[in-house]
Every structure is written in C-alpha cells, then in structure tokens.
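Morning!

This is the sequence you dropped in the shared folder:
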Amino acid sequence: MTLSQSILATLAYHDIFDYPLILKEIHKYLVNIEASPFSVRAGLNRLFLSGKIFSKSGYIFLESRSKIVEKRIQRKRISSRKFQRAVFFSNILKANPFIKTVGVTGALAMDNSDQKDDIDLFLITTKDFIWTARFFSNLFMIPFKRSPVSKITKNKACLNIFIDESHLKIEPPNIYLAHEICQMKPLWDRDGTYRRFISANKWIKNFLPNWKPETVVNGQWKMVNSRSKKSIYSLFTIYYSPIENFLRSFQLWYMRPKITTEKIGDTQLFFHPADTQEWVMEKYKGRLRKLRIASS
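The structure's back. Tokens below.
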C-alpha cells in the first residue's frame, strides 16, 4: 500500500461513520504505514491536486461527501455534553474496588455521538473478579444504565465490555479492533492498568503505526483512605472462589433469555446488541474496492 492509498483507506474507514478527518487525525490513524506529519501533508496535497479528496472547514473527506462535515460539527457539540456525563459515570464506578480502569468507547470516544446515543463504557477488572466486578458495577449504575427492555438509550450508561486484568489482549487482530482500542478514551485508571492493556495489544501498531496512547482523562486513582472498600475487597479475596462462581451463575441465569450476539468467556465479556465488527469490516472492504485499493 502506498502513502496515497493509505490516506484514502484512512478516510474510507472513517467515512463509514460519516466522520471527516483533520490533518492531525489522518496522521494519527493512518492505516498500515508509519509516516511523518510532513509526509502525510505532502501526500494530502497530491490527492487534493488529483481531485480524489476534498476539504471544508478544515475537515478532509472523499468525493461527494461534503455533507458529513456539518454532521461532525453538530455531533462534536452533542458529544461535549455527553462526555461530562461519562466522567460522572466513571466517578461512580470508582467506588467499585474490583474495577481497575474505566474508558469510554464507541461514537462518544470520537466526539461523534447523536442526541439519542447511549454512553459505551469499557471496564478492566481485578484478576479473578470479572463477574463480581460486573455485578457491583451494574448495581451502582442502576439509576443511570441502559435497560435491556427499554427503548430509551439517550445518555444511558452501557457497560458493554469487561476484561480481566489477567487477559488484556483482545483478539483477533484486525483493523476494526485496532481502531476500537486506539479510540478508547481512558477516564480513570488504577495501578497503571491502561498502560498494561496497551502493551498487551501491541499488535495494533501493525494497523495504526502512528497512534500513541491516550492520556487518562480523570487522572490516576488509588484505593487509599477507604477502610470500607479495603475491607470489602479483603473479604472477597478470602472467599473469592465461591462468591465469584455464585455471581457468575446468577448473572448467566438472568441473562440467558436475552443473550444474542454477546461474547462471554472466562476473562472477557463483550455485550453488544449487534455484530458491529462484521458490519464495519464489510463496509470498509466495499469502500476499498471502490477506491481500487487491495485490502490487507
């Protein structure tokens, strides 16, 4: 793949989400090729001259896609308000001693939310406590989380990914998951867990070699000066096996009638209402074919 093709592929991927990019973002999410900002700028100039890409209000997009610029500007304003609510949710989840990291994912992580969108949250849990962590997270978030039986999604928390810190690598390696990992914004972090998560997924550099880890939005947090939290954690540590097993069985029993495309493992839980990955990959391949770029 040449630099010009990489730039087009980068724009094509984000075009799936009606998301034009600024120069800095094209460099950050450049597909498959490591390049300097200067080289990317030069590559963009060549594509502008050839009429393959266009620009409006500082945003760059593919042919006949100028309408998505205003959409991105509107969604950025909406996302700004939603993001403050995501930070509020993360502050609630700090009370859960079995959570190590909270991040926001999905459209909000890219400032691309609609008014009706919920707020997708990604949680890394303490080793051997993934179901305990999920139970208490959902308990704490009852007033704010999305209900599986309700059509109301606006500004609701969606706790859709839980990962045990003992198994931080997400598979299979592909461009969709690479973007999901890189676009996630960590809201708070304990014990350097986010850094370990990125290290465990070094494969993302094969797809997005220019990307660098995000800064934790709400800073580091340590469980200090909280005797009650330490006592709860210590109690569960002593009896973790029967309690964890019970909470696992209870939650699986409760979820069983509602399970559709969820992926449930021993150390990773993915709760998605639809198989977004498959949909995005098909759309991306279609756009590459239209641009006459071989997919990798």
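Headline: The longest strand covers residues 157-164.

More detail when I'm at my desk.
O.
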